[in-house]
Structure formats: structure tokens, C-alpha cells
């Protein structure tokens, strides 16, 4: 008899994969070396918008080590290849063809024009210097509002407009709430604000890379991607390669954050070059290329109108967005704002709601999914305007939230956006957060600092949030015109010695799937954690799946594993009954053993695995296999939530912001591995705080990215962040048997408004009601001086002030 195995779910195990990932002793795409492999380098446009008048590549062809040089006409002579979009959000959405290489015109700085194949990466890059390109300037299009004005220069002349699509949701039309215009016109308080979501760069650790071997019976593609299965399907559709002749492998991937969710022109380019040469080729971008051309995130203008009664009861919410698509449409980019459309109402009981988004073309790198994908943008806007409403009403901002949020006894609750939240307890999470934060004590200290005129003011920021995780029910995606489903696949192989191989379609890029999946299977089958091996990321071994994004891995992929394990147990049960000479009805399964009820007669899963392998003594008609697979399609999203509180100290003489303390209490349902969950929260907090205080992709008036290095694009280090105080409450999800809710994006979604609310709260008595992100010292200082929402220019003198400031930053 085997000893009772301690439950694995809920245990803080160190990740199995850490040894190879942390030491770097693993296979990143750029580590892959194949016999006879050539290297690619791409000549990229320095111009944001221009005609290609002439292109002379003869010098590159004669350069040392160069094997071939290709232009757009060489790789795609018919001009038939265009990058795919999986989410056409409206039937009339305008989506210009994005070629593999620029074909006659460049539409953003960094667009590829020529690819060189050479014996070494250095020789390929050196050869780029010998290429001559003559450009004819075209007007750049950078400002979204100006792009939509009559007579504005067009990014794509053949489209006749810079408007890609307009998508709307109205609660009155959908039958989920009242008419928002009626709510606004009849309310005692109406507040309007404009918020800016700046453009961000995912900045993953490993730049994008692709290796292609065309020499076997299949074309093998290694890519630093989040989506090997989607990449395989989209490559087949884009290039016309039979899908069964494509094998896509995502080896260990050094981060993604949504930035590796696309299907890249460089991936298609690498495949085409490999096919033409009949040799393995590798493309690996530099960090500068990555910052310039890997898709960017966010970049929205948000016009928000909220209405309420004098007692603080909200009555309506109206959202009008402009979303910058860049020069082309990404794989899911058009739908990113639509994900946010269902979250602007957040945890609040708005009776009426209207949402409208206009997607706009500009001469910039395209935008697409970035950690949270629409949900952070929505949470930021609603949490910021709730603070503004509280100030308008003279209420404590926490009191206003408590007055309007969904109470725990009201779950399940169908929102004004039409989603049904299954479980939650905002009161419990908030109470715990306030206790850990010392909310009342910090409010008293804040008042003391104001009364004393302390040059360092204290602000308290609140963010109470929920999000839709587990992308996604396939029927919901279908109703939103998304091309694919939201199911996930898993397979379990019982090996003869009782060990277990788990194949998952949810391919990890640093999340800890191998560890968490092993814990789930260990509990389900009653085998030791160490006896489980997780296989992923290769379409030949993991032959189907929907990959990893949108906090879906555990709540969809993990559940598929549970379902597959249930089938393994069901297959093993008749074998156990046969071996124990009893009826199946007399058996119970627990801790890896089948036991005859009321007796000590039992047999283990390991014993059954070997019995099935030998096939000497099986029930009549049974095939000798316990292997099982399952595909799980969720019926609903999962809805994690939490309360994040931030205390920020603002030096009013310099504008410097220091985060004094940060407390978050998240409800992510049942936690499989608390250590992994804590890491996910910490990483998410770092990214959300970075948006608030540090990061911004900036273009000059010619469309050149001026933040093209990490010297200019500011990423925070550990020294720039406080020690986080984290805790959890738990209301298990009812939409999946694990009770899990998802954690990968929570920190990013909640933290940005918490920090901005804290800084604005610290200086609100100087007449400041907004500061554009990132909240740099200069922007904070300027806002204090002018009592303005404008980060760059002079504004109205509202409220108190510090008087004039001399050049050294000292108060006069």
C-alpha cells in the first residue's frame, strides 16, 4: 500500500522550470543552431510615411558572406500576401494589407523593406549598409483627432479615410439597462473627464526570433511566440502551406505580456526565404528593432461622462474612445478596446451605459494586446472618474465606491454591460486591505501634512476592480466576430511505470505551467508531484490548443486537464474492479487508489497502469490504454477582483513621487500555487506602476520614435518600487471545477489607477484634478504650479499654489 499523498493544490512549490530558465541553460529560439543555417537581417525604413522611389540592392548582393537579397517583389511578386487579422470587429472594418516587406510605400518608421540572407548575422547586418533607398516624403499622421478631421492626410490613400471601424454598445438597445442620455439629463451631478492612455512598449526579456527548417517532410518553425497553435493555423492560411506540413515549436520563451501574440511579417518572411533557398534560416531582432517594431500597447483617448444623484448614487456612464491602431491592423488589435467595453462599469451598479470606440490609423507601429488588453484601460478610466465624482460630491472616495458596488449577497449579478459575475465579495477584500494599509491613520496624516504646509504631501489612491478572465466562451467570441474559439485542450498519458505525461495546448512563456499543471494532476490521479511531466509548445506533440493570453491558462487549460484526468480515472475503474473482483459500483477512488467500499482491498493507479500496459488480464473487450484527452470550452468568464491601496508622497518643490506603501488584496478564487500567484501579482504591479510613473513611447513631429532605447524608454527597477503588501480573500468561481479565477493580469489592471489616484489626491488642493501619464516629476511639478490637467502647457490657476519656482526647483 502507498502512503497517503499530501494535497498539492494550495502548496507553494518552487517552479520545476526555474533551474533551466534562471540559469539560461535552455533552448531559446536564438540558441537554436541547425546545419547549414543562414542568418537574416532586415533593412528598416527611417521614414514614418513615404513612397519608395528607388531601391538598389546590388551592393548588398556583392557583400561578403551574402547568399541572397530579397525585396517585396521577390518574396511576393503578386502582392497577394497580407498579415491576418482574427478580429474584424465590424462587417465594414477597414483593414489595409500589411505586406511581408514594404511594397512601394512605408507607413511607419521601422517597417521592413529588404531582407538579406548571409552566412553570419554580422555579415547580414553589414550588408544592409550597401543598400540604397530613395524616398519621397508623405505627410505623417500622428494625432488621432487630427487624423479624423476633414481633409486630413491619409495613411492609406486607397481607403479614403483614417477611420478603421466604429463599435458601439448601448445598454438600452441591448436590454441590459436604461438610456444613458436620459440618465444624464435627469441627474443632479454630471461630470466629464478626458483621460489619456499613453502608448506602451511590452519590452519582454527575449526579443522576437524565428528559425525555419524547410528541409524535412514538414517545414519546422521555431518561434519566440505565445501562440504556436494559432501561428500554425494563420501561417497555413496566409502562405497557403498545407497545415499538416507545418510544425510550429515555441521553445522556452522569455516573456510576452501580449507582445508575442501576433503573427509577424518577419515570421512569414523567414519561412518564405527558407523555402526559396531550401536551407534553414534564422531571424533574430535586436533590442532596438524590438522597441521600434514589435507591436505597442494602449494608446487611447478616453472621454468619460458620469452622472449621479446628490447622495452619490451613480445613474449613468458614457464612454467615447479613440483607439490608435497604428499603420496596420494587428491579429487581435481591433478587439482590444472591445474587451474593455464590458469592464468600464467595473464593480458598480450603473443603471445606464453607453460605449463607443473609433479605431484610427496613424503612421506609427501597430498596437495590439498588452498585458490586460482593454481591461486596464477600462479600469483606469472608471476608477479615476469615481475619484473625481467623490471630490465633486465632497465624499470620501472609498465611501462612494462602497455605496455603488455590487454587494456580496447580490451575486450572481448581471451587469449593465450584459456579463454575469458569478461570485465576489468586494466588502471583504476592501476591509482586509484597509486594515493592512491603515487607511484611517493615513487619512489623518494626510490632513496633518496639509494643515502644516509640509512640502512633501501625502496622497491615498484607491482602485477597486474586477476583470473578465479565462478568454473565453467560444459562443461569446463568436458573437463578437472573433475568428476562433476560446476552448482549450489537454491530454494525459499514463506510462507503464505509473508516471504521467501531460500535454497541454496552453503554452507557457514564464508563468509556471509545468509546476501548476503537475500539482493539479498529482491531486487528480493521486500520483507524486515529481512523477508528472508537462509537455507543451510543439504542435507535433501538443497537436491542438488555443495557447496562452487573457489569464486563460489555468481557468480554461487547467480545467481541460482536470477533465482529461477524470476520463483516465473512468478508464481505470473497470480494470480495478476486474482486479479486485468486485462491481464498479462498489469502488471508490481517492488518493490514487481504488478501494472496495468498507474493506481494505485496494489497487493503485500505478498498478493499473502496468496492468494495462501488459494487457494480460484486462476486462473483455477493453483496449489496453488509459490515455485520455479533453477539450474544455468555458460557459462564462471568471471574475477575479480586489482592492488596491497606494500611499504616495509628492515633493511639491520638485514633483518627485515616492510610493510609500502599496497594499493589495486580491480574490483570485482557489489558488493552485500561492508562490506562483504571488509572483504573478508582483510582476503585474510592476507593469501597472510603470505605466503610471515611468513608461511612454514618444514620437517626434516626423513620426520618429524618440524612445527607441532603454536609455530613453524608462523601465523601473526593483529600486524604483516599494515592497508590496499582498493578501487574498477567496470566493471560488462557480464556472469551473477548480474554483479558480485567473491572476496573470490582475496587478497590471488594478495598480495604474491606484497610483495616479494617489498622486492626484496628494496635490488636489492645489487645483489639480488630473496629470497625464506617466507622472514624471516635471509633469507633477507643472500641474502643481498651474493647477491644471494639462501636462505640457499653461493652464488655469485653480485652487492654491506654491508661488513661482526658480530654475533650481526651489520655492520662491
Automatic annotation (TrEMBL):
Residues 23-139 form the Aldehyde oxidase/xanthine dehydrogenase a/b hammerhead domain. It holds the Pfam family Ald_Xan_dh_C. Signal peptide: none annotated. Residues 790-803 have a biased composition (Gly residues). Keywords: Molybdenum, Oxidoreductase. Residues 788-812 are annotated as: Disordered. InterPro entries: Ald_Oxase/Xan_DH_a/b, Ald_Oxase/Xan_DH_a/b_sf, Ald_Oxase/xanthine_DH-like, AldOxase/xan_DH_MoCoBD1, AldOxase/xan_DH_MoCoBD2, AldOxase/xan_DH_Mopterin-bd_sf. This is Molybdopterin cofactor-binding domain-containing protein.
Amino acid at each position: 500500500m502507498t502512503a497517503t499523498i499530501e494535497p498539492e493544490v494550495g502548496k507553494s512549490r518552487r517552479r520545476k522550470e526555474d533551474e533551466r530558465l534562471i540559469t539560461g541553460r535552455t533552448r531559446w529560439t536564438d540558441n537554436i543552431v541547425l546545419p547549414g543555417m543562414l542568418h537574416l537581417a532586415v533593412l528598416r525604413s527611417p521614414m514614418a510615411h513615404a513612397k519608395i522611389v528607388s531601391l538598389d540592392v546590388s551592393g548588398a548582393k556583392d557583400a561578403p558572406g551574402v547568399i541572397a537579397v530579397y525585396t517585396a517583389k521577390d518574396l511576393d511578386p503578386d502582392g497577394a500576401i497580407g498579415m491576418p487579422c482574427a478580429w474584424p470587429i465590424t462587417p465594414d472594418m477597414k483593414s489595409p494589407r500589411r505586406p511581408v516587406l514594404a511594397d512601394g510605400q512605408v507607413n511607419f518608421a521601422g517597417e521592413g523593406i529588404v531582407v538579406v540572407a548571409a552566412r553570419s548575422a554580422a555579415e547580414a547586418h553589414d550588408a544592409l549598409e550597401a543598400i540604397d533607398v530613395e524616398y519621397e516624403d508623405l505627410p505623417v499622421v500622428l494625432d488621432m483627432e487630427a487624423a479624423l478631421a476633414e481633409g486630413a492626410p491619409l495613411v492609406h490613400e486607397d481607403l479614403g479615410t483614417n477611420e478603421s471601424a466604429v463599435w458601439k454598445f448601448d445598454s438600452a438597445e441591448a436590454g441590459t439597462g436604461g438610456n444613458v442620455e436620459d440618465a444624464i439629463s435627469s441627474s443632479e451631478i454630471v461630470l466629464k473627464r478626458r483621460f489619456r492612455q499613453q502608448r506602451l512598449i511590452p519590452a519582454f526579456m527575449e526579443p522576437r526570433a524565428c528559425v525555419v527548417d524547410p528541409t524535412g517532410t514538414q517545414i519546422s518553425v521555431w518561434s519566440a511566440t505565445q501562440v504556436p497553435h494559432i501561428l500554425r493555423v494563420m501561417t497555413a492560411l496566409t502562405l497557403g502551406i498545407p497545415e499538416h506540413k507545418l510544425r510550429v515549436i515555441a521553445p522556452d520563451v522569455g516573456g510576452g505580456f501580449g507582445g508575442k501574440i501576433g503573427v509577424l511579417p518577419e515570421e512569414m518572411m523567414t519561412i518564405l526565404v527558407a523555402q526559396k533557398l531550401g536551407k534553414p534560416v534564422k531571424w533574430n531582432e535586436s533590442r532596438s528593432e524590438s522597441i521600434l517594431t514589435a507591436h505597442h500597447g494602449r494608446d487611447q483617448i478616453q472621454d468619460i461622462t458620469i452622472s449621479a444623484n446628490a447622495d452619490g448614487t451613480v445613474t449613468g456612464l458614457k464612454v467615447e474612445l479613440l483607439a490608435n491602431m497604428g499603420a496596420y491592423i494587428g491579429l487581435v488589435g481591433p478587439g482590444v478596446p472591445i474587451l474593455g467595453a464590458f469592464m468600464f462599469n467595473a464593480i458598480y451598479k450603473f443603471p445606464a451605459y453607453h460605449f463607443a470606440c473609433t479605431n484610427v490609423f496613424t503612421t506609427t507601429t501597430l498596437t495590439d494586446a498588452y498585458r490586460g488588453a482593454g481591461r486596464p484601460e477600462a479600469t483606469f478610466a472608471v476608477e479615476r472618474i469615481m475619484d473625481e465624482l467623490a471630490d465633486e460630491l465632497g465624499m470620501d472616495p472609498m465611501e462612494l465606491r462602497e455605496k455603488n458596488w455590487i454587494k456580496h449577497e447580490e451575486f450572481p449579478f448581471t451587469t449593465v454591460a450584459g456579463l454575469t459575475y458569478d461570485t465576489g465579495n468586494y466588502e471583504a477584500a476592501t476591509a482586509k486591505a484597509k486594515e493592512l494599509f491603515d487607511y484611517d491613520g493615513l487619512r489623518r496624516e494626510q490632513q496633518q501634512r496639509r494643515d502644516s504646509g509640509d512640502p512633501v504631501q501625502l496622497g491615498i489612491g484607491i482602485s477597486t476592480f474586477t476583470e473578465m478572465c479565462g478568454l473565453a466562451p467560444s459562443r461569446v467570441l463568436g458573437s463578437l466576430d472573433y475568428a476562433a474559439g476560446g476552448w482549450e485542450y489537454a491530454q494525459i498519458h499514463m506510462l507503464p511505470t505509473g508516471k504521467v505525461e501531460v500535454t497541454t495546448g496552453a503554452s507557457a512563456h514564464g508563468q509556471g505551467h509545468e509546476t501548476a499543471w503537475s500539482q493539479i494532476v498529482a491531486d487528480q490521479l493521486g500520483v507524486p508531484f515529481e512523477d508528472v511531466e508537462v509537455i507543451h509548445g510543439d504542435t507535433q506533440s501538443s497537436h491542438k490548443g488555443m495557447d496562452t493570453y487573457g489569464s486563460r491558462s489555468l481557468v480554461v487549460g487547467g480545467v481541460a486537464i482536470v477533465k482529461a484526468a477524470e476520463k483516465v480515472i473512468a478508464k481505470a475503474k473497470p480494470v480495478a474492479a476486474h482486479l479486485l473482483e468486485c462491481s464498479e459500483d462498489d469502488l471508490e477512488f481517492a488518493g490514487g487508489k481504488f478501494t472496495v467500499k468498507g474493506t481494505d482491498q485496494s489497487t493503485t493507479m500505478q498498478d493499473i497502469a502496468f496492468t494495462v500496459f501488459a494487457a494480460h488480464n484486462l476486462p473483455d473487450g477493453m483496449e489496453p490504454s488509459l490515455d485520455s484527452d479533453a477539450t474544455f470550452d468555458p460557459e462564462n468568464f471568471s471574475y477575479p477582483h480586489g482592492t488596491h491601496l497606494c500611499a504616495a508622497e509628492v515633493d511639491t518643490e520638485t514633483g518627485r513621487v515616492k510610493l510609500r506603501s502599496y497594499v493589495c488584496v486580491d480574490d483570485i478564487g482557489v489558488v493552485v500555487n500561492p508562490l506562483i500567484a504571488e509572483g504573478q501579482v508582483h510582476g503585474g504591479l510592476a507593469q501597472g506602476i510603470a505605466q503610471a510613473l515611468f513608461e511612454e513611447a514618444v514620437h517626434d513631429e516626423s513620426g520618429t520614435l524618440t524612445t527607441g532605447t532603454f536609455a530613453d524608454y524608462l523601465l523601473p527597477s526593483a529600486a524604483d518600487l516599494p515592497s508590496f503588501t499582498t493578501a487574498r480573500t477567496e470566493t471560488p468561481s462557480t464556472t469551473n471545477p477548480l474554483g479558480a479565477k485567473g491572476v496573470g493580469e490582475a496587478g497590471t489592471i488594478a495598480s495604474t489607477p491606484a497610483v495616479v489616484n494617489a498622486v492626484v489626491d496628494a496635490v488636489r488642493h492645489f487645483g489639480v484634478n488630473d496629470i497625464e501619464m506617466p507622472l514624471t516629476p516635471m509633469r507633477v511639478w507643472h500641474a502643481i504650479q498651474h493647477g491644471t490637467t494639462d501636462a505640457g502647457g499653461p493652464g488655469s490657476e485653480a485652487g492654491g499654489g506654491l508661488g513661482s519656482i526658480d530654475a533650481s526647483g526651489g520655492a520662491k
